[in-house]
Request: fold
Amino acid sequence: MLDLNLGLMLFVLVVFFSLLFLLNQMLYKPLLKFMDDRDNSIANDLKNAKEMAGNSDELHAKADAILADAKAEANTVREKAVNEAKALADSKIESKTKELDSKYQSFVDELANNKEELQKSLSTQLPLFKESLKAKMGNL
Reply:
């Protein structure tokens, strides 16, 4: 029925162990080395990412500080420009007001002079008006 051949069994056993040895040397050890290297690489990348995250927080803080300083400086420059513009506008308003006041005063003086001249003219011609008025009244 069933014949057991000891030589063949030993040969199969030797082939099995030699195949196991060759697979171990050529496949399993390089595969395990590759997986260990990959795990080490992932661990290093995670460590570097954490360091970069720490650095980026620092850089964000520095950038925020620089932005705050720039905004403060811009506000200072804007306030200075607004104050200078206000001072310039005030000086122009003041000079224009003085100019208009002087023109108004000269107008008032001229009007007073014209009034005096008109009064003098009327007072010198008052007798003529009286005579012409009497003449007209006499004609009525």
